[in-house]
Amino acid sequence: MIRRLSAHAARYLARLFLLFVPISLSPSAGSRAPAMLEPEPPQVDTSACSVGYAYGGRLQNGFEMPLEGKHHRFTWNVRKKGSNFGTPEMVSLLARAAGVVGTAVSGPPLVLGSISKKNGGKMRPHKSHQAGRDVDILFYAIDPEGRRKRAVGFYEFDEAGRCLHKRCKGWKFDVQRNWWLVRTMLWSKRPQVQYIFVSKGVKRLMLNYARKRQEHPEILRRAKRVLVQPGNSSPHADHCHVRIYCSAKDKRAGCKDAGPRWDWIRRGA
Ligand SMILES: [Zn+2]
């Protein structure tokens, strides 16, 4: 059953990925493949639409992200609530970012908390997560023996990267994998990321690591603005919360952004 589910999930995510591959990956102009080798058009229903604000809207015909794939898992709580639905752009971003990290720095899968329920709307205890454009992401970690581990719960990390909960004594924040995840999302053109809510301590930890590895200055500039400790909820030392902007198509159908629009955000993307 598990194997069948995983194979299904892998096919589903691969089809979804096809929708968002950059043009540059298409065959070069002039090269004509025989008809039988042309790829099938992706059979993915992308009619989902984010309506209204992230903290007061809804999700129409939400797009389901498989509960598990090669590089991700949802928490038990999400399975219970059925909150693994988002816009196609959000699901694509998560699948892509988890895949990039899993390939660049191999290790266990990314653990995801809630996105939204199939039709969005209020979902306790969250204020947002109503329109398929928010997601909670647990941090990658390293155990006391130095082995990469998947997150086991919403446990806080301090500024030195030490896990503060008694159940993860001696565990460390996996700054390499967490930074890869963040930089992949910051660089995404479609969708574009508005916020990554995270504590000041965890933000500093990642930025110090990024500077040390001589990260691209544009990615550093974006990270300084997009990574924010929220003022009106928990400091987010135990997970990060990512919010994406409305897509151009959803905007025309009533999707609404609030807050800053960063100077690198392209119109109509
Ligand atoms: Zn959240």
In percent, how much strand structure appears in the residues?
5-15%
Order of helices and strands: HEEEEHEHEEEEEHEHHEEH
- Helix/strand structural class: alpha+beta
What ions, cofactors and ligands are bound?
zinc ion
Mean pLDDT: 87
Q: Which second-level CATH architecture applies?
A: 2-Layer Sandwich
Outline the biggest β-sheet: 4 strands, mixed
Write down how many β-strands occur, each being a DSSP E stretch of 2 or more residues. Answer: 13
Helix coverage percent of residues? 25-40%
Q: Write down the CATH class.
A: Alpha Beta
CATH topology: Muramoyl-pentapeptide Carboxypeptidase, domain 2
Envelope shape: globular
The total domain count is 1
- Evaluate the radius of gyration: 19 Å
Give start-end ranges of low-pLDDT stretches: 21-33
Adjacency order of strands in the biggest sheet: 7-13-11-12
List the main descriptive attributes of the protein structure presented here:
four-stranded mixed sheet; Muramoyl-pentapeptide Carboxypeptidase, domain 2; alpha+beta; 7 helices; binds zinc ion; 269 residues
Written account of the structure:
The chain has 269 residues and is an alpha+beta fold. The chain has a single domain, classed as Muramoyl-pentapeptide Carboxypeptidase, domain 2, CATH 3.30.1380. The chain is 30% helix and 14% strand. The protein contains 7 helices and 13 strands. The strands form 5 sheets. Strands 7-13-11-12 form a 4-stranded mixed β-sheet. A hairpin with a 6-residue loop joins strand 1 and strand 2 (58-60). Helix 3 crosses helix 4 and helix 4 (175-186) packs across helix 5 (200-212). The radius of gyration is 19 Å and the shape is globular. The termini are far apart. The site of zinc ion has 5 residues, from strand 7.
